[in-house]
Amino acid sequence: MRAGITRRRFLQGSGAVVGLTAAGRAPAFAQGSKLHVLRWVDFIPACDVELKKQAGEASKLLGAEVQFEFINANDLQPRITAWPHLYENGLLDVSDVAAWQAKDQGGFYPQSETYTKVGGRFMALPHSIVPGLIAYRKSWFDEIGVTTFPKTYDELRAVGTKLKKKGHPYGQTLGHTFGDAPAWAYPLMWNFGGVETDRSGKTAIDSKGSVEAVKFMTAFWKDACDEGGLAWDDTNNNRAFLGGEICATLNGASIYIAAKRGQEKIKDERGEPLVRDIQHARLPAGPAGSWSYHTAFAHAVMKYTKNPKLAKDFLKWFHGQDAYGRWFEVAEGFSVGATKRWERHPLWNTIDEPMKGFRTAPDNSRTMGFAGPPSAKATEVYSKYVVVDMFAKGAQGSSPDEAVKWAAAELKKIYG
Description:
By secondary structure, the protein is α+β, with helices and mostly antiparallel strands.
């Protein structure tokens, strides 16, 4: 953890020279100016502790009060005026800050840029990506003769079937939860050749690829999965894994980090620290490839803000290499940068071997709406969990054809 930075270092590091007076004072904002920042409750609690520290630091440097509010991610949608594509008219254009960040930090990952850029303008500033990999119990896989994680979905089903018979099912949520459910459902559809729309943005989910994906999920669910996952949110699989109830689950790095930080209490069935038995792997491949969906985060400024300059000055500092670097180190690989510079951070040289796969995980991510571009309509499909529910219907007994046709009808209501 580095010591607090000086005002001059802040202004140099952030590039906020336009607000610097000849005397080197912080930008002068109206007395009583406040900046309210709404974020999710991080799965790494130490990250939020770090942000609270940074709020005080930024308040002094900016001469205005910066307040963070943390809220459960599944409750965020009702509390915000916008996702960039869904409510672009409610957001301030931050293209100038984005241009600075991209130049300063090696350019954005395509996923981060695509999600925040609407009509050629950045309507939010890319902040980070939470990659999802499959956490699995290496010793349980070894016990059935599987020394490397399955490379294909069919192999995963076969292995999962054996493990479920031994009392170690695969854990996967198909509930209405913003992270792990879409991160499983969208790639499963893509990897079997299904797509939400074609390149022109016309709905195309009613296809052989989508049917085959649901067909796989229906069998995999029965043969290999903990069938209670229909009601899980993004925390249930963490608890199930740490409690020794499941053999594997798609997740961010939070399971590993929690097991490491709590290794004196979180043990396996032999009484050994569970963290020693955790490995990570990318999603397996289907007939159409091996793609992933990772959760991208960004910060948007509401158009109704009374002080857009304060908001932009804060973002320039908050996303700068110094402040961001401290938060990045606390995250310990759970969150990776929205820009490629952070792949070269020294953290990756010292991090535990099972965590190193998160470093470049975002390099194979597609976006909602694929094969068309992200859009307000694709975001609405995501928010209404249409793709997730398509698979949930199959798991609950609908035929693959019925589940896909239901999804196609729902998409038609949204896309027209």
